[in-house]
User: What shape does this take?
Amino acid sequence: MQIDGFLKLVRERRSMRRFKTDAVPRECIENIVEAARWAMSGANAQPWEFVAVTDAPLRRRIIDASLEARREVYAMERERLPELRHSHYHHAPMSPNFEDAPVLIVVLGDRRTYQATVLAAHYLNGEGGTDATYLKNIANATQNMHLAAAATGLGSQWISVSYIWGQAIKGILNIPEVLDVHTIVAVGYPAYQPPTPYRRQLKDILHYNAYDKSKYRSGEDVQQFLHTLRQRTEAAYKQG
Amino acid sequence: MDNEKMDMLLGLIKKRRSIRRFKPDAVPEGSIDKMLEAARWAMSGANAQPWEFIVVMDEATRKKIADSWFEPHREMFAIEQTRTAEMRLPPLRRFATKTSFAEAPLLIAALADRRVHQAGTLAEHYLNGTLAPDASFMAGIANATQNIHLAAAALGLGSQWVSVTRMWESAIRRILEIPEVLEVHSIAAIGYPDYQPPAAYRRPLSELMHTEKYDRSRYRSTGDILSYLRRLRQATTPAYEPRNQT
Assistant: This one.
């Protein structure tokens, strides 16, 4: 794939919040996980594993297990100004917006593989924090899956898994304790066409040879951005 | 199902290799904007877009950045020598005399603004348990960064993801005049490869992908993991040598 094809794919990928219930062919699912398999990871540690869940009762149990965590998130979110609350949590949790997705790909991480990288990583951390490389490697694999779904004409949604929900999922899917449950990639045929997402301009994020202070965002600028973001991103959370 | 686009994407993902020696030739006109466009459209939690980038082509600046790499390297090298020889990461088996990105004509520093992570839910910071509270912030930065590397490959260029440790971050901050509140996470070294890397090693799909439930027969004990790491070292060591290999 050349640059124009890649850029087109990256720009056209949408986060899908409502799916058709039609099953996704097994070959598609494997292609999507294949894309994850070839992702980049520090020291090529490849800390990832995946559980692809298509079975309807299992998916139901996973979704029901999210409710307790969602109640906690909603309660905390109410402590914020209404216009800054995360778009999913303006109302008390009802059905999550991936429950019709025919495939849930659960992304697991094995922290023990992190031994593949330099020992110093634990004492002189880099990339913004301890575990940063591990978390980023999992993200690399996960985003590749979303790009692959988009390339196949499928919709997908990146669902973060909190600790409470993750522990419940481990029980449902018989996942060993030592592994972390990071995210779920919901995949299915799109049920609507999401709007074009909001993105900051290239000139706002690009500096040449040194940081351009005229582009620096003060704390107030960041608050303004967050307000704008909420307004501009609201449309993307509506399910068409 | 659109097979052609999927095959092309998989082809790109598999074609991308980490490059450790570059030609000094400048990247083509328009490449930088295209690579950053790919970064700009990456996914991030709550669409927070926590990234900014400094593109460095100026030779003197690149040299300062490379020179500042050695002191942190000394620390990392010392700690790595406490491991058994076979477990040491290959580039840290000998004290480096030059960086793996020395000749790259283009360095893209990835900066992260943690303040915009307020776009996520409050609960992330309190309910993430064993996972970091900033997992989705880290994911956003990774997504943008990996897109740069994929875009470089799509342009026929080579690239390398160079992590920035705390020690090195201070030096880069001074050199590039980066405001305190922004973090420097990594540098993407980009240019034309000066050699053909060997084939990449990846665990097979059959080991990674479970269907419906986790297949306990594939559970890896710590002993299994250590065996895997030894195999990984053997399989991956050639990739750290920046020269053509038969």
Q: What stands out?
A: The radius of gyration of chain B is 19 Å. Chain B has a mean pLDDT of 93. Chain B has eight helices and five strands. The helical segments of chain B are 3-15, 31-40, 59-68, 70-80, 135-154, 166-176, 205-208, 222-236.
